[in-house]
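Something for you to look into today, if you have time. Could you write out one complete protein record for me, on any chain you like? Leave the record below and I will have a look.
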Amino acid sequence: MERVTQLGYLGLSVRDVDEWERFAADILGLQPNGRDEDGSLFLRMDEYHHRFTVHPDGGDDVAYLGWEVADEHACHALAEQLEAAGFEVSPGTAEEKAVRRVAGLIRFQDPNGIPSEVFYGPLMSFEKPFQSPRPISGFRTGELGLGHFVILVDNAEQSIHFYRDVLGMRISDYVHITPAPGVSFQATFFHCNPRHHTIAFIESPKIARRLNHFMLQVQSLDDVGSTYYLCQDREVPITMSLGRHTNDHMTSFYMQTPSGFAVEYGWGAREIDDATWQVQLHTSGSIWGHQRMQAGLAGVVQD
């Protein structure tokens, strides 16, 4: 079975690209790397030409997911797995490959209708090393991919089947928590490389937006602390205070983006060795901290 190897890039659809550029550079420490002809903004965090593309489409949600594989053979094999599972696959056109800055890709939709892509051969920029606009030590990426994200899904079982049995990801663990009176949910966490989880999803009958949050992992705890206080100084809303998670042991906090979904900014997550890892169940999201500063679950329609 062919498997995706990492989350290579993430497309975001937003209302205000200029505001996102300021937020990404001044708060997150991502490096703006120019704009495409349609006004879409590229954001760097390592040697890749970009890890995020921010599109001026106005949706304030995830626009598409970009899953990386090793080469053309792996991309074709995954196309066959998708088609065998009943998913319609479109080969990337020359224009689409040029826009994404990749050697090749295929396009499809996951069971929730989220546009998704499998690609190989990303454009690299080793001759121009990543330079954060902020004095931070950088991001932990490489074979781990850009980070992780959490989405809201229509049917958890369908999503589990798809990401496990079609894209070849592995379940890391489950977290069942009650964040507020009358609110209870179970999150399923998946990995495709040593990063504890690259994607997690929560089933919800009332979805306002798919994307709950994405996570950036920095190289130093000092980077987390300095950003935590920078958010307070710049009046960037903190949606969850500093804390440490039970499942991946990440020390992190959550801030609100200009689009309303959150960014988790963290350090120190443990990694998975598939030869020894055993799936776990947690009934608490955090060992300590992570106090919710806003009611409800981001992305869910509030009654």
Notes: Helices lie at 17-28, 72-84, 94-100, 156-166, 221-234. The CA atoms of residues 216 and 265 lie 5 Å apart. The two ends are 43 Å apart (CA to CA).
